[in-house]
């Protein structure tokens, strides 16, 4: 089967974007893994599938997200910005504010005059069971309005804040992202038994109250150059724990996002780049 695609990235978190607005696209997990494969396929951290919206629910589009391991997930912040740039630049919509249904929530990307995109990511889920995180038998350490949960890794007790942006995140504070043991601890946190749907693992260095550095070991994709929902989760955690102010620049290996959050019950606003790399066509084998 031949498939047309657009390769995009948001701060180096890269995507294969597929237009399923005219005809449905339903590939197997192995076919999504093939598209994401950097040697045998196109190469991407995630595959984004753009589908028609639902007028009755007031949405312009639906978009689905597959990790590089072929599994479908609930949310993708950098993907949301690339999705908005894609539907606008391909003429699928002329709107600058777009309402899109993801698996867990309706989010609202706004195209800015300077080419960046701001996404209203909705309010974070802060109740551990909603993340989901199983804190049975654990006592969190409280700092201001936030909790730090002690979890055991092989030879390494760590404390994490747990936040859902529609998808699950565990955020750990480190002295330096440059020296953080992301390769060693990332996979252990991702598959930790306390996170029944697995989890994205963020390593956050607080530079000052308006600036952090962040590396994220993503569930189903490994460490990426940037994670939009991870940046939102880290800032939410840092604000609740009293470490950060309401507007924070987040520097990740692939670039900077700016996150704003006014507190529980209010939406997280994420601003950053969304860039098209190239268009192409690929033969997808039956897998
Ligand atoms: N890169 C994304 C997050 C993609 C999904 C994530 N790996 C998960 O499994 O939840 C982002 O920019 O948010």
From TrEMBL:
Keyword Transit peptide: no
Record-annotated site: Could be important to modulate the pK values of the two catalytic cysteine residues: 169, 218
Active site residues per record: 76, 227
Keywords: Amino-acid biosynthesis, Cytoplasm, Isomerase, Lysine biosynthesis
A Pfam family it matches: DAP_epimerase
A single MF term (Gene Ontology): diaminopimelate epimerase activity
Pathway: Amino-acid biosynthesis; L-lysine biosynthesis via DAP pathway; DL-2,6-diaminopimelate from LL-2,6-diaminopimelate: step 1/1
Catalytic activity: (2S,6S)-2,6-diaminopimelate = meso-2,6-diaminopimelate
Domain of life: Bacteria
GO CC annotations, alphabetized: cytosol
EC top class named in words: isomerase
InterPro entries: DAP_epimerase_AS, DAP_epimerase_DapF
Coiled-coil annotated residue ranges, if any: none
The protein's Enzyme Commission number: 5.1.1.7
Compartments in which it is found: Cytoplasm
GO biological process: lysine biosynthetic process via diaminopimelate
Residues annotated to bind substrate: 13, 46, 67, 77-78, 167, 200, 218-219, 228-229
NCBIfam families, sorted: DapF
Family to which this protein belongs: Belongs to the diaminopimelate epimerase family.
Assembly description: Homodimer.
Biological role: Catalyzes the stereoinversion of LL-2,6-diaminopimelate (L,L-DAP) to meso-diaminopimelate (meso-DAP), a precursor of L-lysine and an essential component of the bacterial peptidoglycan.
Official protein name in the record: Diaminopimelate epimerase
Protein source organism: Aquabacterium olei
Gene: dapF
């Amino acid at each position: 089967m031949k498939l047309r695609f657009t390769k995009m990235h948001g701060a180096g978190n890269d995507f294969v974007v597929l237009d399923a607005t005219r005809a449905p696209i339903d590939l197997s997990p192995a076919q999504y893994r093939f598209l994401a494969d950097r040697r045998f396929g196109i190469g991407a951290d995630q595959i984004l599938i753009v589908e028609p919206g639902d007028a009755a629910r007031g949405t312009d589009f639906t978009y689905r997200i597959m990790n590089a391991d072929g599994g479908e997930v609930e949310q993708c912040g950098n993907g949301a910005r690339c999705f908005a740039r894609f539907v606008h630049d391909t003429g699928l919509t002329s709107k600058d504010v777009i309402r899109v249904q993801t698996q867990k929530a309706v989010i609202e990307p706004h195209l800015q005059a300077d080419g960046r995109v701001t996404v209203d990511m909705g309010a974070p889920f802060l109740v551990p069971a909603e993340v989901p995180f199983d804190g049975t038998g654990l006592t969190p350490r409280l700092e201001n309005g936030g909790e730090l949960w002690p979890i055991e890794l092989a030879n390494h007790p760590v404390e994490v804040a747990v936040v859902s942006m529609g998808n699950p995140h565990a955020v750990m504070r480190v002295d330096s992202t440059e020296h953080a043991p992301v390769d060693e601890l990332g996979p252990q946190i991702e598959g930790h038994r306390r996170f029944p749907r697995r989890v994205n693992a963020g390593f956050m260095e607080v530079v000052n109250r308006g600036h952090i550095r962040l590396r994220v070991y993503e569930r189903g994709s490994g460490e990426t150059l940037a994670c939009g929902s991870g940046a939102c989760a880290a800032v939410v955690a840092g604000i609740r724990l009293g470490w950060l102010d309401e507007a924070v620049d987040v520097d990740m290996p692939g670039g900077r996002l700016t996150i704003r959050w006014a507190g529980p019950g209010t939406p997280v606003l994420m601003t950053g780049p969304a860039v098209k790399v190239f268009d192409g066509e690929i033969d997808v084998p039956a897998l």
